[in-house]
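G.,

No rush on this.
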Amino acid sequence: MAGSSLLLGLVGRVAGKAAGALVTDVARMWRVESQRAMLERHLLAVQKRLVDAEDSSEAAVKRWTKDLKAVAYEAEHVLDIFQYEALRRQARRTAGCSSHVRDKSPLFRYKASKKLKKVLHKINVLVEEMNTFGLVERKEPPQAVFRQTHSALDDSAGIVGREGDKEAVIKMLLDQRDKHKYNEQRPNVQVLPITGMGGLGKTTFAKVVYNDRRVQKHFELKMWCSVPQAKFDTCSVLKSILELVRKGRCDLPDTIELLKERLHEDIGQKRYLLILDDVWNEEEKKWEDDLKTLLCSSVGGPGSRIVVTSRSQQVASIMGTLPPYELSCLSEDDSWKLFSQKAFSNGVQEKAEFVTAGKSIVNKCKGLPLALKTIGGLMSSKQQVHEWDAIANSNLGATDSGRYEILPILKLSYMHLSPEMKQCFAFCAIFPKDHEMDKDMLIQLWIANSFVQEEPTTDLEQKVCKLYNLETLKLNNCYMLRYLPKDGCGIDEIKYMRQLRNRMELYNLRKVKRGSKANLHEKHNLKELSLYWDRKESVAPRYENVGLQANMMMPSEDQPSSSQKTLENLRSLEVKGDDGFFSAFSSSRVWHCFAVLEELVISYCCNMVHWPLEELRCMALLRSLHISHCAALGQEGSASEETLTLPRLERLWIKSCDSLQVIPGLPTSLEELDISRCRSVVALPSDLGGLANLRNLYVLGCDLLNTLPDGMEDLTSLEALTIKECPCIEEFPRVSAMDGCNTVVLTKRMKNACAIL
């Protein structure tokens, strides 16, 4: 009984409100404290017997729970009035309106008190009725602590038993044997339906096929479109496709002719792959009249494919031009393999007793991957044999009609949630199918609806600070947190944390004497390091005890240079809002730590006045360099005769550096060059024409750029050339000489733009 499960949480929530300090204070003030206390006691008594009522199948009990639900919501509304009054008084005191906060009008107070008494009377009636049912007090079964049972990208579990299916479908997508037979009767674009009942993993299977290396290489355009049932109309589908192609919002009106023209511009005769996932439309007219003509005949080169996943055979017959590929249930061996991956992945031993019960559970899942993964994840939290036996002996897989459905198994996981979590889960039903929910927003909505109760704890216990083996600490949704301990978040506090790994971010950095004690050079497991000097409140409000000294990366003076080590796992470094970082870090001893760095991002470093060429020499493995919003870069020194000695550099982005006039020579390994909004740049590097590996050249908003280097025609690997808002360019080499360049974007502000063609 899902309704009763939610009711248990609702009654507990209302009882908590009735006992809260806000309601209690106002109830005493309005002299209805006895009624409030009686309401609280009755709700707690009812809550104890709701667990028994949940298992009852009597019609009278079901009717009683329905009435209780209505009264509980009414009681919550009344208690909200009391809470509002308490908060109003607090707010007026905080604002200093007066030393004595004026009470609400006597009429408001009378009505609120009357509503409380009315609700109490209804609860009294329900309690008397409850006593006639013979319900007994039962506690909610203890809930297993939630633990992660799989990795974020569990591709291996999703493809169990589908290797043969995968190869068969990929062969159908890549088959070009009848390429010469395409004619007006047989469109260039073929539609392949993938069908099967819910829970077979059609979407997961389609993703595995879609992301296969061979498929990605074969098609020029790849698009994945999830189709909501309510939005299968021509304009909505076409707009979704255009947004995928353009990687941006489509603001065209709902006019098919305009959308058709845009399709021709963006797709044309390119060989494309389009996945239409979870299609429910069974109206032939919607497909045949417009979408089929537009997608299968008007655009797309020979060999293009549309893959449609659906539970409906009718959808397959309407849309398919190729025979539908029907996914079958997993074999017994594959079912056990998938189930055991989930069930025995979280400390549960694969004992003989568990295997016997597990085999019975797997048999009930009928080879459905979703059911196997769901029930397997549930069993990973069950440590006792009797728990496994109870689920193995339950009637999981059959409905009243006798036809197998997956919902009873999914419901099993729901029934094992706590009452509070059931409310949070059920609340998600207000979102439409395929809606991408924002985690933080969802939590805020839960809190706003009182599904998540505020904990009274305001301070952490002292023993929390003695967890010497602690590896991860997360402080989520601590909205009242204002200050961290003075001696708990200084830069020197990480001195002995040698096992820090993956990513570390330091905010609100500034020069302090203790910075050298941080010993960042000893954090050999770090992969990503971000240093932010930004002091805006939006970044890290009130966390003022973080500091940085210029030599914090360096070993102490008495440490021999021979013992210095590289941060051998550090791959990414981001420096934002420099407060003297580059001017202070001039020692090669510091930059030696970054010898294996692959990505460097520098932004808003107003003190960087010249190219850090010497520093960059230490980064022989650097592949990506991003410099942006460094307004003083180029004010000192000249880089025209210098060269970036980065033999593996592939991507160089230089953006919004207003003082920059010249760019140093570029390494021949460069594949992508982006120079944007550098208003003072007058020339590009003279060796640009010798970059044999350059695939993408993007120049935007360089107002003083008046010439391009010689040898541009020799860029044989160039695939995309974009030059916008560069009005001073007088002459440009002919693009027609660049055989491999298939994308050229020029703006009308360029002089003699037509001459390059």
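When you get to it, here's the other one too:
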Amino acid sequence: MARNDPQLKLRLTEELKDKIVEAAKANGRSVNSEIAYRLEESLLFEEMQQEAFAPLSDDYIKRELDWQPVDGDQPITRSEHLAITGVMLDQHFQQFGAEMITQIKKLLEKK
């Protein structure tokens, strides 16, 4: 990181700071680089999760099941969503799991 990169003040507990310092030493990074690396990784992982599970949204489930609303139909309930999602997770797990593993491997190769 260059000296002209934006700076951010951050308050941490002493315990968390110590963990970050230890991790930075173990990974051969500066404390700043360790914090930036971990933030980037957590945001990327969150992005990957959202992409992987986007097909399990209510709209997707309704489309996949050819669900057509009828006058008076109520929105899908949370328990119905969870039941349908469970079935769909089984169907999509291998595909998305493999894609996530591939992405993680690519990330690790970059480091």
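The chain has one domain: 14-110. The longest helix spans residues 78-110.

Enjoy the weekend,
O.
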